[in-house]
Amino acid sequence: MDRIGFDNQKYLELQSAHIRERIGQFGNKLYLEFGGKLFDDYHASRVLPGFEPDSKIRMLKELRDSVEIVIAICASDIEKNKIRGDLGITYDVDVLRLIDAFRGEGLLVGGVVVTQYAGQPAADAFQRRMESLGVKTCRHYPIAGYPHNTSLIVSDEGYGKNDYIETSRPLVVVTAPGPGSGKMAVCLSQLYHEYKRGVKAGYAKFETFPIWNLPLQHPVNLAYEAATADLGDVNMIDPFHLAAYGETTVNYNRDVEIFPVLSAMFEKIMGECPYKSPTDMGVNMAGNCIVDDEAVCAAARQEIVRRYYTALCDRRMGAAGDELVNKLELVMQQAHVDVSIRPVVAAAAQVAEATGKPAGAIELPNGEVVTGKTTDLMGPSSSTLLNALKALAGIDHEHHLISREALEPIQQVKVHHLGSVNPRLHSDEILIALAISATTNPLAKQALDQLSALRGCEAHSTVILSPVDSGTYSRLGLRLTCEPQYETNKLYHK
């Protein structure tokens, strides 16, 4: 279990204060591009132990009376039914989820912008649906030569053709279901329209990673590079900041590459560029809130290895190629880390070798590693989970929490009535059986009460788990890695 390395309360206070300061810098109207996940930033919580996954939304709630949310979604993503990998829902559905979530937190949603609109029928249908739900929806259009043809972009034929989003609050947060949705373009288009109307608005980026005032090769920044390896992002020294201030800071390649273009756009819109570097554009106080560098370094190294295993499994499943794996191997070398830092890997492998069947392992908060094997009743993820709960509750391993007589009928239903080929019980099925057993068995109740203690624990499987098992582990907060191989040689896995 990670020891605390990050002061979350200090972060909320500093970040909020600096956003307020930035709003004041631009005459009380700021468009804030919000990257990353707002409600559930688990990457940040994993690499900065102490960072709460909902920190960003909590920070916005502190500014509730000043904030208005605008959500951007790219028309081509609607057309392609692009899916959020972590949630398994399409981007257009995620917009609805985000609106509900923001409103549930008492935050004003000003509207939705369909970017890169070029007559896509699916985008038309999406807009009709949004408007029928009472959500104001605008369109932004493709601009020839974007982003380099600044003369056209910053003109009535460029940004001037886009719909203007009516906003009423000093702070307009522009967010999106995922990357590539056009958040920055929405902010700049609004700036163009605001200045045409005589409103001296400004732009800034809410950032967490890379952390600008940590070294380039710091494990936290390398973990961000690992997390974005599939996007081709690379951390680098900000040359503009170095030239302007003589100060070495870290940014990532896309922001550095686009800065001269952005600077030219700002000059055309505002008369001058308010920033001397891409680092200047960001509002990021995370680096000032690290209270234990050793703790965050250790957590970040674990994250790098987890990302490596994810890439190996993605390659095995055909969702990634050698290039991604090779890049992550390079990041691991830069971080001076390998898979041996995960005790669960060796422990699971030992059991698998001894039994000749898939196995699993979980590292408990006290450092104890518990293993599980494949049985006729349970898969390795289920047995490992039960064994971990026993250990947490101080229950002797020999005690059965669920009787065979209770499990066998469930197997019968699975195979004979639900058409399952695998009779072994998945981890969610085992938990339901454990919950039923807990009504009459005090030991089962003790084990069930330990479920929350699994959050943040490391886990490993010697085979790629089913979506059901990996999903259960994820919902329990277990940090799972898998070896890039299947239990069987079948071509179809479900």
Sum this structure up briefly:
By secondary structure, the chain is of the alpha/beta class. The protein is 45% helix and 13% strand.
Textual characterization of the structure:
The chain is of the alpha/beta class. It has two domains: 8-214 and 241-289, dip2346 fold like (Roll), CATH 3.10.630; 342-482, Domain of unknown function (DUF1846), C-terminal subdomain (Cytidine Deaminase, domain 2, 3-Layer(aba) Sandwich). 45% of the residues lie in helices and 13% in strands. The chain contains 20 helices and 15 strands. Strand 12 (359-363) and strand 13 form a beta hairpin. The longest helix has 24 residues, at 293-316. It is globular and about 75 Å long.
Task: Give descriptors for this structure.
globular; 7-stranded parallel sheet; 20 helices; dip2346 fold like; 494 residues; 2 domains; single chain; alpha/beta; Cytidine Deaminase, domain 2; 4-stranded mixed sheet
Low-confidence segments: none
Strand content: 5-15%
**Termini Cα gap:** 31 Å
Number of strands: 15
The largest sheet has its strands arranged as 6-5-2-7-1-8-11
Question: How helix-rich are the residues, as a percent range?
Answer: 40-55%
Radius of gyration: 25 Å
- For the record, the CATH class of the largest domain is Alpha Beta
